[in-house]
Specification:
Oligomer: homodimer
Number of helices of chain A: 14
Distance between the termini of chain A: 21 Å
Strand order of the largest sheet of chain A: 9-8-10-1-11-12-2-13
Strand content of chain A: 15-25%
Largest interface: A-B, 33 and 43 residues
Helix content of chain A: 25-40%
Order of helices and strands of chain A: HEHHEHHEEHEEHEHEHEHEHHEEHEH
Chain lengths: 402, 402
């Protein structure tokens, strides 16, 4: 991958515009040998036409064979080395819900869960209690204080919340308490360095107080904490690429990862149509737009092949023409990871990518699918190369060396 | 990329011969969507025939999306990591004109330029004064001396010259004085490390003396200095690859980069035909020939699509049969960077490459072009892998490990 410092030294001022259309969980797989993937099944004539004028390929968000989490894959798409920039989900979620996370805060993503009389987990999501119930429980936990630190607690959605500690001398790294299986007790938070001992002790005290308060409130009678981390303070997209970058995303997680690289997160609605309206409304104000579509991934996670096909068709029918009408200089269409309905989960399969610009030197690919993109001139490459390619095609990088 | 030290440990003695035919700025782009590139337009039957017996691919001289300068891209082609081996143009140009640059010399590439009464640049190339005028001005500047260092000044071509300081304790890194725009004054040389302070002061004194002498000699009434650097002392091609390497190139820049890796730079003429004659005359004396063709790049920089096509056709008609007649063991045909007439400049687009040898295991590509090579069995790969591939095909590398 290309070093971000090197890229930042090559950046030249420009007014060109780049759109990254990110279809979450885009990559798929056939349900049976010899079959077609979701993307191959979908009728996407406008995208195939765009592919014919584009350069195509397959990218690996992290590395061949590695199934990406959403945080690392998005960082890679934004050009940040996902192995160097590991960020806990607590940080992503708290940024995502708009919490004003500061440099030395420690954030955790929390789940309400159910434990039996022996303290062993029987449901990791407390029967997926609704958001209103979650808010009610959060309000019961708010009075819990800890010595010398400020405790913030915010509901996210359903059984999810974030917990943030603020104060002097807090530190990671810390282990998670969710054992990721049933029939065992939640784990204690453990410090992975001596500096983190006090923080671990504070978190364990908070958990123990929370447990007392929740004890009789079955099914949400316990909590687990995951992704405990500090904000890593990554350099911004503007510092690295000289881009005024904006994010349009309906889910907190993706707004969080966009904030992590200091994108402006635009207010938008819940639907794809509203996201497109947001793009149009702010077109003049930014150079780079990260437009995130979530529903494809959800259909894949549900194992619903047909629904994923339908959503892909809908996305392309609505979103692609709307983007092209704005006449961007560079359009990148890809996903952050594969979510084949076959596997009902994220997978390691590489992602098809299409890069369109006036200067892209189109290859012979004229269909946007996993198999067709495997023959593209971009080859198979790490996702961290996408931003340098987009910047080059937007004529925003000068040459390297004399 | 493969480490040069590792390669050097695998080298075995051999008498096989490798030719690297380097067509400067070879890669192109269509002038309009759906069109052909320069190379796709050119009729190159003998090269297409060679492609059918070769293995093909696309390479990136530096990295995906990065537009290479000529220095780094040639170093990559010779197998040197271009990010590790950054060399100032002053070094390349002074080596290129045959100046005997020593280990501790500091070299700069100079331009005569025009400034107005306020000292602001109005022409960065002083109206492109001819070489004879440049020599005349250099002779006026030769008397300028500096305390405790030897000053050498050599004309290059037109408005270009090189300045070399020799003496104890000279050091870089140093900033350039050419602001790369009009309407502003040349910048002073600045030291980028404490050791370089004295060198910066000496260079600024030289500039100030030069300015006094040139004051009334409009249009060449000022100078700028670029690419100020020391010779990095790279290991030679012979040390790494065990190759007796020779360079045939008409331009100082490319002779310079060849000298940097200790190739023998053969005297040759100005035309492609003379370069071919030089190759034939020295065929018995070397194992590796770097044959550099410049005119394709110049046509691209001029935005002259048709001329670039014509030159490509001419090169292939003359050069390829002449090379094959010598029966080399390995022939590599590629470019150092793309220079699409569309962009009138170097670009980030990857380069088509063809590698022919008796042992290459030819792929299905039977046309030498950007799009055809995208389907080649070499895939898309970094230029630093070219030398290991050429060495392997010349049966000059033993196996790695037991």
């Amino acid at each position: 991958m290309t070093d971000q410092k090197m890229i930042s030294e090559l950046v030249i001022p420009n007014t060109t515009k780049i759109v990254l259309l990110l279809i979450d969980g885009l990559g798929g797989a056939p349900m049976h040998a010899g079959g077609l993937t979701e993307l191959e099944t979908a009728r996407t004539p406008n995208l195939d036409a765009l592919a014919a004028d584009s350069i195509c390929g397959l990218h690996d968000p992290i590395a061949r064979g590695i199934t990406p989490g959403s945080g690392p894959s998005h960082l890679a798409l934004f050009g940040y080395d996902p192995l160097q920039c590991q960020v806990g989900r607590g940080v992503l979620e708290s940024l995502g819900i708009g919490f004003d996370l500061q440099a030395d805060d420690v954030a955790a993503r929390g789940n309400f869960c159910t434990v039996d009389e022996n303290g062993l987990i029987t449901d990791r999501r407390a029967g997926r209690i609704p958001t209103e119930k979650g808010i009610e429980l959060i309000n019961l936990l708010r009075p819990v204080t800890l010595p010398d630190v400020e405790v913030s607690l915010e509901p996210v959605k359903d059984y999810r919340f974030v917990l943030v500690l603020r104060g002097e001398g807090l530190s990671g790294p810390l282990t998670e308490t969710d054992p990721q299986q049933l029939g065992v007790a939640p784990l204690p938070v453990r410090a992975l360095s001596p500096e983190a001992e006090r923080t671990a002790a504070l978190l364990n005290e908070w958990i123990s107080r929370a447990r007392e308060i929740l004890a009789d409130l079955h099914p949400a009678n316990m909590v687990t904490l995951r992704g405990l981390d500090k904000n890593p303070g990554l350099p911004s997209m503007e510092e690295i690429y000289g881009l005024r970058a904006a994010a349009i995303a309906t889910y907190p997680m993706y707004r969080g990862v966009a904030k992590l690289v200091c994108m402006e997160v635009l207010p938008t609605g819940e639907t794809i149509e509203e996201e497109v309206d947001t793009l149009k409304a702010h077109w003049a104000d930014y150079d780079f737009f990260f437009l995130h579509i979530k529903k494809t991934d959800s259909a894949g996670e549900d194992g619903n092949f047909e629904q994923k096909v339908t959503i892909i068709e809908h996305v392309y029918e609505i979103v692609v023409p709307a983007i092209l009408q704005l006449e961007p200089d560079v359009v990148v269409v890809t996903g952050d990871h594969s979510t084949p309905a076959l596997l009902r989960s994220h997978s390691w399969h590489p992602l098809p990518i299409l890069l369109y610009s006036r200067h892209c030197r189109a290859d012979a690919v004229s269909e946007f699918s996993e198999r067709a993109c495997a023959r593209g001139a971009l080859g198979r490459f790490p996702a961290t190369d996408i931003m340098p390619l987009a910047m080059a095609n937007a004529l925003r990088l000068t040459k390297f060396g004399a």
